Amino acid sequence: MGAASGRGALVAALLGAALGSVGAEPSHTLAEVLFCQPDTPSLGLAVAFDAEQLFSFDFPNSRWLPHLPDGPAWPTGIEEPHELQKDAALCRDLRDLLTKIATGPLPMPEAKGIPVADVFLQQPLELGRPNTLVCMVSNIFPPAISISWERDGVPVTDGVTHVTYTPSEYLGFTRFSYLALTPHSGDIYACIVTCERDNTSVVSYWVPQDPIPSDMVATAVCGAVTVLGILLALLGLGLLLSARRRGRWGQWGQWGQRGH
């Protein structure tokens, strides 16, 4: 696929394989996306399974990288670096061709997505204990954004880890950024997503909410269970008394009929 604007064109080649049983809709998707563009990064390649990135290719160092630090290595003999360099050269040629068309007398419309940022903790919140804050940025197109962090309005760079772009099923991209932190009450964290091409930013904030202490939760649960048990016992007692009263009234009715 390709997208163009006044600054140039982005070219992305998608190779997808649908996995599923014969005669049924595919239940899983394996996708490999190669893109090149005039923005930074100029080249990108990722392999994803159901929109979860497995591998990415580091073009400057000409090597495959697993998404997880302790993940398996890329299998040898498959898509060697020299083969990918040929694909990258072809992608650049197509980009240059589309750029000429886009800047000609009949410019091509620009395809662009507005990034959406969601910030959340990787582990349950416990004030004063180390954790990781995750900024998930979706609906990215073209893949040319920068992500930065702030705490109480001050930029934070220590403990920050950025992940490469992951292709999505909607022909866009998703990117993650991680911030190692120790949350405290009153902190205000911000994930700032900047679109390099338009110089616009999207900001998503996260503020730690005071969690309910575990002992208070346990006490509340025990109290609720106790109250529920008492109510059920009273209900059972009421039903038992009602049944006995009905039985007595039935016996008295039979005696009255015999007396007549």
TrEMBL record:
| Domain Ig-like: residue ranges | 109-204
Q: Where is the signal peptide?
A: 1-24
Tell me the domain of life.
Eukaryota
**Membrane-spanning ranges:** 217-241
UniProt key word Electron transport: no
Gene Ontology BP, a term: antigen processing and presentation
- Provide the membrane topology annotation: Single-pass type I membrane protein
* One Gene Ontology CC term in the entry: MHC class II protein complex
Q: Could you confirm whether the keyword Flavoprotein appears in this record?
A: no
Q: Which CDD domains match?
A: IgC1_MHC_II_alpha (cd05767)
Q: Which keywords, in A-to-Z order, does the entry hold?
A: Disulfide bond, Glycoprotein, Membrane, Signal, Transmembrane, Transmembrane helix
InterPro entries the UniProt entry points to: Ig-like_dom, Ig-like_dom_sf, Ig-like_fold, Ig_C1-set, MHC/Immunoglobulin, MHC_I/II-like_Ag-recog, MHC_II_a/b_N, MHC_II_a_N
**Subcellular localization, per the record?**
Membrane
Q: Which family does it belong to?
A: Belongs to the MHC class II family.
What is this protein's name?
DMA protein
Give the organism the record lists.
Answer: Odontophorus gujanensis
